[in-house]
UniProtKB/TrEMBL annotation:
Localisation: Cytoplasm
Cross-referenced Gene3D superfamilies: Vaccinia Virus protein VP39
Entry superkingdom: Bacteria
Region described as Disordered: 1-29
Organism of this sequence: Streptomyces kasugaensis
Catalytic class of the enzyme: transferase
GO biological process assignments: methylation
Protein name: Protein-L-isoaspartate O-methyltransferase
Length: 414
C-alpha cells in the first residue's frame, strides 16, 4: 500500500469516527426525546402486521420521525368556515406524540394553489408528505430486502424512508432521487443529523437514477400513470424487485413485480394498500387538466350499486378503474347541500349517486357510464368480491402493460 493511500484511508477513518461520534450524540438526544412514542408506534405497526420482521422493527425503533418532520400541515375548518391547512410543529407543547401517529403528514403545498389565509394557515393542494408509517412499513417488507442489496428510492420527500433504509442496509447501499432540489437539500440535512449520508440527487425519478447503475430493489413513494417507467426496468438487476404505486384513474394501488433478464416485469397488486401523490415533472406544482363542460342532465333512476358501496370497497374501485380507464371520481355538492359521488369523463359525460338516501343515479350524457359501474358490481360480487391482491400486473419489454384477475384470467390492457 502506498503512503498516500494509507494516509487517505487513515484520514477517512478519522472523519468517519468523528462523524459517528457527533451523530451518535444527536441521535441519542433525539431518541431520548422520542423514545416512548417510538416504542408505541412500533408496537402499533406490529399489531397491524405492517411490520412483520425483527429487522424492520429495529429500524423503525431507531429512526426518530420528528427529525424528518420539523413542521407539517393539518386540515381544519377555520372560524370563517373555510377548509385550511394549519401548520404544526412537533416540539410545540403536546405536539410530539402527533408525529408518531400512524397517519400521513402533509409537508408541502403547491405554491400555485396555496394562499395564506391566517397567521399559520393556508389553502392549497398538497405536493409532498411524510407517508403513513404502516404503509411505508408494508412496502419495505414487500421489498424482501436482504443484506447487501442496493436500493433506489424514487421520491425522497422528508428523508424518513431513506433513514429507515440506511438503518437496515447501511448508507452506502441507499440511493434516492426527488424532483424538488429543496426537498433533497432538506432531507440530506436531516439525515446528517442522525449520522447518515446516502446518495441523494435532485431529478425526475421517472427517468431513473442519473448514473444509470443497477439496483436490486426499487421503491417508489410517488404514483406513476398505468406503466412502470422504462428506466426503472432497465435499472433493476435481473430477479430484482420493484414496489410502486400505479395510478389507473378512478383508483390505483401498489404493485410488486420481479424483473427478469429480458426486461419483463411480472407480479401483482400487494396486500398492502395505499396511495401516493402523483409523480411530477415540475418541482413544485402539478399541471392543470382541461375538461369539457358537463353534459345536460338526462334522467334519474334506481340503481343496483350505491355511493356507499363504492366508497366502502377499495378492490371494487380498482376494478372500476380498469373498466372505465378515462373516468375519474369527484365529490359533487348540489345547491340544496346534497353530497354525491360523481363519475365523469373528459367529454363531459357524468353520473352521480347521493352519499345518503335512496339508491338512485342521476346522469348526463351517455348512459353507458353508470351501466358499466353496475355491470362491474355484478361481476365483482359473482366472483366472491376478490381483494386487490387477486389481480396481477405485468409490463412487457416493449412497454405494453396489463392487469388480470388471477383466478379467472380476465384481462385488461392498459
Amino acid at each position: 500500500m502506498g503512503l498516500d493511500t494509507a494516509r487517505h484511508r487513515a484520514s477517512h477513518r478519522r472523519r468517519h469516527r468523528r462523524r459517528t461520534a457527533r451523530s451518535h450524540r444527536v441521535s441519542t438526544t433525539s431518541l431520548d426525546v422520542a423514545g416512548p412514542h417510538l416504542a408505541a408506534l412500533v408496537e402499533q405497526l406490529k399489531k397491524a402486521e405492517a411490520i412483520r420482521s425483527a429487522r424492520w422493527a429495529e429500524a423503525f425503533a431507531a429512526v426518530p420521525r420528528h427529525v424528518f418532520v420539523p413542521s407539517w400541515y393539518e386540515m381544519e375548518t377555520n372560524d370563517k368556515g373555510i377548509s385550511v391547512w394549519r401548520m404544526q410543529h412537533p416540539m410545540h407543547e403536546g405536539n410530539l406524540p402527533k408525529v408518531y401517529r400512524d397517519i400521513t403528514l402533509v409537508t408541502a403545498l403547491d405554491p400555485s394553489t396555496a394562499e395564506k389565509v391566517d397567521t399559520d394557515a393556508w389553502t392549497g393542494v398538497p405536493t409532498s408528505s411524510s407517508t403513513l408509517p404502516s404503509l411505508m412499513a408494508g412496502m419495505l417488507e414487500d421489498l424482501h430486502i436482504q443484506d447487501g442489496h442496493r436500493v433506489l428510492e424514487v421520491g425522497t420527500g422528508t428523508g424518513y424512508n431513506a433513514a429507515l433504509l440506511c438503518t437496515r442496509l447501511g448508507e452506502h447501499l441507499v440511493h434516492s432521487i426527488d424532483i424538488d432540489p429543496e426537498l433533497v437539500s432538506a432531507a440530506q440535512s436531516r439525515l446528517a443529523k442522525i449520522g447518515y449520508e446516502p446518495q441523494i440527487v435532485p431529478g425526475d425519478g421517472q427517468a431513473g437514477y442519473p448514473t444509470g447503475e443497477r439496483f436490486d430493489r426499487i421503491i417508489a413513494t410517488c404514483s406513476v400513470h398505468r406503466h412502470l417507467p422504462a428506466a426503472w426496468i432497465e435499472q433493476t438487476s435481473p430477479d430484482g424487485i420493484i414496489v410502486a404505486d400505479i395510478a389507473l384513474g378512478i383508483e390505483g394501488g401498489l404493485v410488486r413485480v420481479s424483473v427478469d433478464g429480458d426486461g419483463r416485469a411480472f407480479g401483482h397488486f400487494t396486500a398492502t394498500s395505499g396511495r401516493f401523490m402523483a409523480a411530477r415533472t415540475d418541482a413544485s406544482t402539478y399541471p392543470v387538466q382541461e375538461r369539457a363542460p358537463y353534459a345536460a342532465e338526462t334522467e334519474t333512476r334506481p340503481t343496483t350499486v350505491t355511493a356507499s358501496d363504492i366508497r366502502a370497497n377499495y378492490p371494487f374501485r380498482l376494478l372500476l378503474a380498469l373498466e372505465l380507464p378515462d373516468a375519474e371520481i369527484v365529490y359533487n355538492s348540489a345547491d340544496d347541500g346534497t353530497m354525491s359521488l360523481q363519475f365523469q369523463r373528459p367529454d363531459g359525460t357524468w353520473a352521480r349517486s347521493p352519499l345518503a338516501g335512496d339508491a338512485t343515479v342521476t346522469y348526463g350524457g351517455e348512459a353507458d357510464l353508470w351501466q358499466t359501474v353496475e355491470a362491474a358490481w355484478q361481476w365483482w360480487n359473482e366472483q366472491g368480491r376478490p381483494a386487490h391482491d387477486r389481480f396481477g400486473y405485468a409490463r412487457e419489454p416493449e412497454g405494453a402493460a396489463r392487469v388480470w384477475h388471477i383466478p379467472t384470467g380476465r384481462r385488461w390492457n392498459l
